[in-house]
Amino acid sequence: MDEAVAIILISVAMFLGCFLLGLIPLLIKLSEKRLQFVSIFGAGLLCGTALAIVLPEGVELLEESWRVSSCSVAPAAANQNASDVGVGHQLQEEDPRSKGLPARFFIGVSLVVGFILMFLVDQISSYCSIHDPRTGMSNRTSITATLGLVIHAAADGVALGTAVASSQVTVQVVVFLAVILHKAPAAFGLVTFLMHAGLEKKQIQKHLLVFSAAAPVLSISTYFILNAS
User: Fold this and answer.
1) Are 159 and 218 spatial neighbours (Cβ–Cβ below 8 Å)?
2) E strand or H helix that includes residue 26
3) What tens digit of pLDDT does each residue of 100-159 get?
4) Which of 38, 90, 139, 192 is disulfide-compatible with 135, CB 3.0–4.6 A?
């Protein structure tokens, strides 16, 4: 029950922090030159988030899961063949190959799948913008940017919910700090990007609301699903 309260409080704090920080560019009136500067700064934050956090996180998670699965398979094979010393030595020699495909294979596949996913998101948003006479190029690019960040925020929410379900306080704190530290700048960057794209204030607030709510909703859902199972 304490963990349930903790995940709810963490999710609410994460939502409020992300949403309020994202509102800052909307509340401050900026001239054209300053808006351009803030837009460039926001775009840099988005690119930095993608290159410095999204890709390394994905690679690290894949490598970790590969190592855990390899470690769990190795002792089982050793116990099964403990009676035969010769076979044991043979398994030890063939251990690197018995682990299956190398981690770089999964990393490469993940990058390709991620690229294809974002390409599909871009094409879908382009299709929607063509069939809506009220939207233009700016709306298309804004949908693409928001969807990409929402997908990543959802993955962060799953990671946070899993960390809380693990009952390890250190893991919970580290994951929460990691999520909030790169979600807040991403929210700021998203809003400045949408402002530069020419969207109305109400539309920007809707995009920000969806982005801010993605991680909290997924973290709470993941926690209760893991507890139920």
Assistant:
1) no
2) helix 2-27
3) 666 556 655 666 676 677 767 766 766 655 444 544 445 566 677 778 788 878 877 887
4) 139
Examine residue 89 and state whether it is found in any structural domain, yes or no. no
Q: Tell which residue, 145, 181, 182, has the closest CA to residue 39.
A: 145
First to last CA, the chain: 16
Q: With contact defined as beta carbons under 8 Å apart, do 45 and 186 qualify?
A: yes
Closest CA to 11 of 152, 157, 208: 157
φ/ψ (deg, to 5) at 124: -65, -45
Whole-structure pTM over 0.85, yes or no? no
| Number of structural domains found in the chain | 1
Element (H, E) at 115: helix 103-130
Domain that holds residue 165: 2-72+102-228
d(CA 68, CA 100): 13
Q: Give the pLDDT of residue 93.
A: 47
Sign (positive or negative) of CA dihedral 69, 71, 76, 77: positive
Cα–Cα distance, 112 to 115 (Å, whole number): 5
Mean pLDDT to the nearest integer, 18-27: 85
Find out whether 14 and 215 touch, Cβ atoms under 8 Å.
Answer: yes
Is 206 a domain residue?
yes
In a domain, 211, yes or no: yes
**Cβ-based neighbours of 12, under 8 Å, separated by 6 or more:** 216
Q: Please report the sign of the dihedral spanned by the C-alpha atoms of residue 104, residue 109, residue 110, residue 114.
A: positive
Identity of residue 48 = G
Confidence (pLDDT) at 209 = 92
